Amino acid sequence: MNSPPPRRLLVLLLTVVVTCAGSIGHVFADAAGDFHAATRAVDAKDYDKAVKLYTRALDSGELTEKQRYVTYAGRAFAQYFARQYDQSLVDFDEAIRLAPDVAEYYAGRGAVFFDMGSHREALNDYEEAVRLKPGYTKAVAARDALREMLAKKDGEPGPKTVSKPAKIRPTARRVAPAAVSGAVRSRSTEGPDEVAAVHSDEMLRRGAAHLSAGRFDDAIAAFDQVIRLNPQYAPAYAARSDAHNGNHQWDRAMADAERAFALDPGNHEARRNMAIALNGKAWRLATSTDPAKRDASRAVDLAARAVRLYPEEPYIHGTMAASFAEAGRFDEAVSAQRQAIQMLIGEGRRREAAIFSTRLESYLQKKPHHR
């Protein structure tokens, strides 16, 4: 069974859904304490304690319906990390029943199904997550990887078109007869180069699965092996760049993206991952709560480069706005933030647009955003 993904996936989910549900602590102090203590327990990898605390919050009778679905989702992820897959599915089902339009819940349940080996159910959930939130890049990546995996399993060609950003698509180095017919070939009949090619393909698929599930260290290890076998293979560098981004290792992500660019100047994944890495560094430089770690001028430069590389991502325009605000260029910050909000609304991502609107109010009051 695959190992559970790092806590970053849980933190990302809970940050989104808690913000959408409103301020929990202002409504019920005891249950709020249990909820946040549960999140800290997950941080310490004490999943049994986290489940107990989430359960106590749910049993308190103090939660509104919105707060209940947030807490069910938290417990579902804690159970997932503890490999309590059946219980996790029950809680995701309840969270989805209470909040059927939250894409993150379908993606979370999809991760559970994937680790249980129920790949078609996982694909259905990732499809729904993308339908609800078209710009949800991790769900898009998981959906595309599963589509291709299931197509190969059924002995059919993969989809001819994939929603971008498309995840790793192995090249024609795979032995042609097996790839076309699905026939099983004995390794004893293959030469060293063919064996290496098959192994490279397998590690590439394995890395893609780890990446889509949020297991970034495992993904990096798999892509390392692909690169050792084929150091001129641009998609492996692009994929490893994506995994480094997942770990917030921005400099390593940029180095791998640059290598992918050098090998394949038209690689869309490398362009996107470079932009995400630049965006991550810019956001940290613009919004850190530690003044010593902020650098407005550099943040503006990095964010501008990210926008040029990947202008279709609203969050990058949001980082541009935060960088302008930190530099005291509030008119430009307001303009960039409004553009990001309009892009989110155009993609149907209204919850995120509401969060961005709160930040816009700060810029209109000439206040930078420090997280």
Task: Walk me through this protein's architecture.
Helices cover 71% and strands 0% of the residues. By secondary structure, the protein is mainly α. Among the domains are: 1-99, Alpha Horseshoe (Serine Threonine Protein Phosphatase 5, Tetratricopeptide repeat); 276-364, Tetratricopeptide repeat domain (Serine Threonine Protein Phosphatase 5, Tetratricopeptide repeat, Alpha Horseshoe), CATH 1.25.40. Helix 7 runs antiparallel to helix 8. The longest helix has 21 residues, at 192-212. The chain is globular. Mean pLDDT is 78; it is low at 1-29 and 157-196.
Q: Quote the average pLDDT.
A: 78
Low-pLDDT segments, ≥5 res: 1-29, 157-196
Output the structural class.
Answer: mainly alpha
Question: What is the CATH fold-level name of one domain?
Answer: Serine Threonine Protein Phosphatase 5, Tetratricopeptide repeat
What radius of gyration results from the CA coordinates?
A: 22 Å
- Note the gap between the termini: 37 Å
Under the CATH scheme, the architecture of one domain is: Alpha Horseshoe
Q: How is the main sheet built?
A: none
Helix content: over 70%
Instruction: Please tell me what the overall shape is.
Output: globular
- Could you spell the SSE succession in H and E letters? HHHHHHHHHHHHHHHHHH
CATH structural class of one domain: Mainly Alpha
| Strand fraction | under 5%
Secondary structure: number of strands? 0
Q: How many distinct helices?
A: 18
